[in-house]
Amino acid sequence: MHEWLIPAAVLLVASLAATATGAQVADLRSHEALRVCADPAAVPMSSEDGAGFENRLAVLIGEKLGVPVSYTWFPQGPGFIRKTLRAGLCDVVMGYAQGDEMVLNTNHYYTSAYGIVTRRDNPLASVDLLEDPALKGQPIGVVAGTPPATNLAQAGLAKDMRGWDLFVDRRIEDPVGDMLAQVKSGELAAAVLWGPLAGPRVKADPDLQFTPLLKETSGPKMFYRITMGVRLGEDEWKRQLNSLIRRNQGEIDALLRDAGVPILDDYGKGLKP
């Protein structure tokens, strides 16, 4: 049926229903606790034991709000937002990439990038561009479906890539840990990984180094701005979090740097001073 044939009364009912739904969404947020949706095994970002840097960030935000932090644990992957945040089980997702339409993004609270992990004593330790000829013929670890996998292929390195799955149950599998172990052993010459995943682990290992990819000129961009995600329509909650981010940016930066997260300027051109 063409939309102009729908009776006005039906349109009115639909409008009222949408208004009611909006009110229900706004009422879902708890004012007694900071309710967070998170992966229980996304080390070093979030973990059920509270050791992840996103866990510590949630504690900081909770303290500023004057409420405790509570969690809904659910593995990251298809359906994560629908089954947690949108289902009303929690009110915020830490560490969400800016621009995703599944959530309402706050202002970003840091910018980071993909980069190359090598041994410090490897000749590839000076490489900072995926088109560097030195990478030719070298086994390079990468997570399939991530932006650097496209850039590696465009640089003619498809046959050199060793791929790991993007969506796994990290309570059972640890793709980043596997790649770093193989870089350390020499089985891989390098691994190209998301900075917040690799940086904290590399910081704890004196044999490895992380070099952010700041010079890529083709293919998908290598840097992304990271926000907190809230439910669509919860603009007041978003504004409250934006205010907290703005007023506590120094503490947030210090927390991330202490964790080993590489923080860039807003344009992904260099490390943030």
From TrEMBL:
Signal peptide: 1-20
InterPro entries the record matches: Quinoprotein_dehydrogenase (IPR022448), Solute-binding_3/MltF_N (IPR001638)
Tagged with keyword Chloroplast: no
SMART domains, per the entry: PBPb (SM00062)
Record keyword Cell division present: no
UniProt domain Solute-binding protein family 3/N-terminal: residue ranges: 33-271
Keywords: Signal
Superkingdom, natural source: Bacteria
Protein name, per record: Quinoprotein dehydrogenase-associated putative ABC transporter substrate-binding protein
Native species: Paracoccus shanxieyensis
